[in-house]
Amino acid sequence: MNGLAGVANCLQTHSGQIILNPELGYRALQPIARMLDFAAAYKKNIRASGDLSRDVHLFSQIGPA
Question: Taking burial as the number of CB atoms within 10 A of a residue's CB, which of 19, 22, 36, 53 is the most buried?
Fold first, then answer.
């Protein structure tokens, strides 16, 4: 059950274990690793100055999540 009742049940009974087929788990790691590699390749070390009028260009390429 996905919802608050399910979360509460898992926390109360410590029954939140998920069992996956190892092959499925391995296949699921591949796209995650590609996304992390992509993010690492384009990582920029940018630090805002705290002055929004000066830093507005830092956020010009950021859209809604």
Answer: 36
With a threshold of 0.70, does the pTM exceed it? no
Give the per-residue SS3 of the chain. Answer: CCCHHHHHHHHHHCCCCCCCCHHHHHHHHHHHHHHHHHHHHCCCCCCCCCCHHHHHHHHCCCCCC
Domain ranges, ordered by start, for the chain: 1-42
Q: What sign does the dihedral 44-34-36-52 (CA atoms) show?
A: positive
For 20-60, the pLDDT digits (tens) are 788 988 898 999 999 888 888 887 777 778 888 888 887 77
